[in-house]
Automatic annotation (TrEMBL):
Source species: Rubrobacter tropicus
EC identifiers of the protein: 7.1.1.-
Record's catalysed reaction(s): a quinone + NADH + 5 H(+)(in) = a quinol + NAD(+) + 4 H(+)(out)
Function per UniProt: NDH-1 shuttles electrons from NADH, via FMN and iron-sulfur (Fe-S) centers, to quinones in the respiratory chain. The immediate electron acceptor for the enzyme in this species is believed to be ubiquinone. Couples the redox reaction to proton translocation (for every two electrons transferred, four hydrogen ions are translocated across the cytoplasmic membrane), and thus conserves the redox energy in a proton gradient. This subunit may bind ubiquinone.
The name this protein goes by in its record: NADH-quinone oxidoreductase subunit H
Record flagged with keyword Transmembrane helix: yes
Segments traversing the membrane: 15-36, 81-102, 114-136, 157-177, 189-209, 246-266, 278-299, 311-333
Family: Belongs to the complex I subunit 1 family.
Length: 336
């Protein structure tokens, strides 16, 4: 037994096993969030939601997976098949990879990179490529329109998203997610969401746009472009795109918690759970994910010009001003 444990701790076996565990977690997270989304929408709309498969409908995600596995994958006759099939993978892999640098607890991180924040920015940027591949590979008008919308939106909102990270980096003096969490302390009034409130709100809004959730779901736009870049997908390829969307939603929530809400730290010292502090991380992440779902079923979709105005005329100036405020505060108040 000890030999097996020692073998699992050697590289690269540890890395492969850890990535497999993260992949399993992300795929299951997508199934759980699908169920949570349908339940949340039902409660908001005063409906029952899924309630036929298993107790209180809890086995509905398993039924959905079975249906999608057995459903035929079709593609347009004029599509570029390799690009068409590669697009869902290009969307899913970045969302799964970044989970490897997210610290769930003090010693529960697959790869504690000293440039973890830079890794997050670099890898999530690849997601826009997958959207463009889906639109181009489908050779469909609606798909191409959705892909162009998606690329414009994701690239535009990367600017305020990256700017909103700089305040945290300045305060911490590190690009490591673990260092960011440790520097926030175990009391909620020392977490960065208070001194960096404009950055926290900007990161939240930009994250919502990056994962293409309502009110920023213009790349899909069911009432305008009937599903956008994913309109030609079916079966498992469509399921992989949905899994990528939910994995990205969970990832943005987890990064938000790590950067601004103390990560695994308890809100007050006497609530410290020791080795089980990952429960605090999970609770905070679930709360942020719930707000994503709440917003989806409560707000209308923005127009394209409104979306661009919000990004370039509101969020970017706010983050730039707050960067100067943060720098000034660090000069005036020594030790901060």
């Amino acid at each position: 037994m000890q030999t097996v444990l020692n073998l699992l701790e050697t590289e690269p076996i540890r890395l492969f096993v850890s990535f497999g565990a993260v992949l399993f977690l992300v795929l299951n997270l997508a199934a759980i969030l699908t169920m949570a989304e349908r339940k949340a929408s039902a409660y908001i709309h005063l409906r029952y939601g899924p309630n036929r498969v298993g107790p209180r409908g809890l086995l509905q995600p398993a039924a959905d997976v079975f249906k999608l596995f057995t459903k035929e994958n079709v593609h347009p006759g004029r599509s570029d098949l390799w690009v068409f099939l590669g697009a869902p993978i290009a969307m899913f892999l970045p969302a799964a990879l970044v989970w490897m640098v997210v610290p769930f607890a003090p010693d529960a991180v697959v790869a504690n990179l000293n440039v973890g924040i830079l890794f997050f920015v670099a890898v999530t940027s690849i997601g826009a490529l997958g959207v463009v591949m889906a639109g181009y590979g489908s050779r469909s008008t609606f798909s191409l329109l959705g892909a162009l919308r998606g690329a414009a939106q994701m690239i535009s909102y990367e600017v305020p998203l990256i700017l909103s990270l700089l305040g945290v980096i300045m305060l911490t003096g590190s690009l490591s997610f673990v260092d960011v969490v440790n520097s926030q302390g175990s009391t909620f009034w020392t977490w960065y969401f208070l001194p960096q409130l404009p950055m926290f709100l900007t990161f939240y809004i930009a994250g919502l746009a990056e994962v293409k959730r309502v009110p920023f779901d213009l790349p899909e736009g069911e009432s305008e472009i009937v599903g956008g870049f994913m309109v030609e997908y079916s079966g498992m390829t469509w399921a992989l795109i949905q899994a990528a969307e939910f994995a990205s939603m969970g990832l943005m929530s987890a990064i938000n918690v790590t950067l601004f809400l103390g990560g695994w730290q308890p809100p007050l010292p006497f609530l410290d759970l020791g080795a089980f502090n990952w429960l605090w991380f999970g609770l905070k992440t679930a709360l942020i994910m719930f707000t994503f779902q709440w917003i989806r079923w409560s707000l209308p979709r923005l127009r394209m010009d409104q979306l661009m105005d919000l990004g370039w005329k509101v969020l970017v100036p706010i983050t730039l001003v707050w960067l100067f405020v943060t720098a000034g505060a660090m000069l005036v108040i020594p030790g901060n």
